[in-house]
Amino acid sequence: MDGPVMPVTVERTEWGGWSNCYWITNGEVELILTADIGPRLLRYAYVGGTNAFYECKEELGGAGEAEFRVRGGHRLWTAPEHYERTYAADNFPVEMSVQGAMVDALGPVEGNTGLRKQLIVRMAHVGTSVTVIHRLINTLPWAVEVAPWTITMMAEGGVGFTGFPPRGTHPQQLAPTNPLTMWAFTNFADPRWKFLARYLILRQVPGAATPQKTGLWNERTWGAYWNGGLLYVKRYNAERGRTYPDFGCSFEIWSNATTLELETLGPLGKLEPGGQCEHVERWSLHNVAEPEWTDAGLDAVVGAVL
After folding, report:
1. Is 179 in a helix, a strand, or coil?
2. Residues 131-188: pLDDT tens digits?
3. Which of 128, 153, 167, 217 could make an S-S bridge to 54, C-beta 3.0–4.6 Å?
């Protein structure tokens, strides 16, 4: 017989040098976000276990800096990437509210963009599932064209991967299925990349000399990161017929010497004065032995967790 369902608990705590943090747990997994900066989700783990997210140790606990800080964890940005708008500093206190199992973090108006960023977090009562609602709110007296861009920074030393849209055969399927976008620094000859028939793989190598990045569109957008037996998965449903940034990307993957980022993007749209857009991701954690980095090996993992 199943035991009782444990309620989701939300408690004030200290973490990473910040005194005003919120600990969210259902007894199986835990999240940490702070009211001192952000909005940022800083920890996602099995209770007491290894953080799935990257922690920039020298920047934890800081606040009030005039320029953007990496810090780690999960954040909301704006696309297309533009230095002054995208890299707006999120180093200032946020407004927090708690309603049962839901925690709402609303950032201040950004002085150089006129936008407010909001994260609403809902943890399932059972299991590892978390829903993260991202909002961009326009406080300017004129419309702005932006897309929500969510960036999850993963702990070093793991392997990121995603799936292509459903594959087919020639000449039965003649139309293209998706873009595969390159940046000026993208080098597919780099051994950190591996391309399979149904999957794209990028390995995070500590100390790597150069960054790597690519992006694609998939109606069933998802990204995963395996690291020492811990598998993190994020999912998002893209919309057909909408215009997406970066030559049409709903998903991007990037890595450098210290972290790997799993990124999803919403469609471009005009935010009218007072308007907002919303972007929803669903997360989960899993204990998984290292897969075979083949189509068959990843089919087995993906079939079990998606």
Report:
1. coil
2. 999 999 999 999 999 999 999 999 999 999 999 999 999 999 999 999 999 999 999 9
3. 153
| Total residue count of the chain as it appears in this document | 306
Q: Is residue 1 part of a domain?
A: no
> What CATH number does the domain containing 272 carry?
2.70.98.10
pTM over 0.85: yes
- Looking up tokens 């040098």 gives 17
Task: Tell me the residue ranges of DSSP E strands in 36-107.
Answer: 41-46, 74-79, 95-99, 102-106
Number of compact structural domains in the chain: 1
> What is the domain extent for residue 220?
9-305
In a domain, 295, yes or no: yes
Long-range contacts (CB closer than 8 Å, 24 or more residues apart) made by 9-18: 10/98, 10/101, 10/103, 15/42, 15/43, 16/42, 16/55, 16/60, 16/61, 17/60, 17/61, 17/62, 18/60, 18/61, 18/63
115 is written with which tokens? Answer: 């936008």
